[in-house]
Design goal:
The N and C termini lie far apart (about 30 Å). The radius of gyration is 12 Å and the shape is globular. The chain has two helices and three strands, in the order H-E-H-E-E. Helix 1 crosses helix 2. It is about 40% helix and about 30% strand. Strand 1, helix 2 and strand 2 form a beta-alpha-beta unit.
Length: about 80
Amino acid sequence: MHESSLLKNILKYLEGQEQASSRGIRKIYVSLSLFGGIKKNHFLEHYKEMSAGTKWESLDIEVKEIPYGPELEITGIDFA
């Protein structure tokens, strides 16, 4: 499934960002293109499913839908 692979990569990316900064991640900002295949609620459902039981389970996520651009982009990270 496209979303599962995408979310595995996101979680791997977050792990790398945490290690590089030596700080925990509190919140991420994500933009989703309205022309992409993933809608906000669908993304959040898959994120909840994939992150269940991990340290990323309660991560605060702000999703912004944009008219065009990359299908999905992490546009910011807030560290603890």
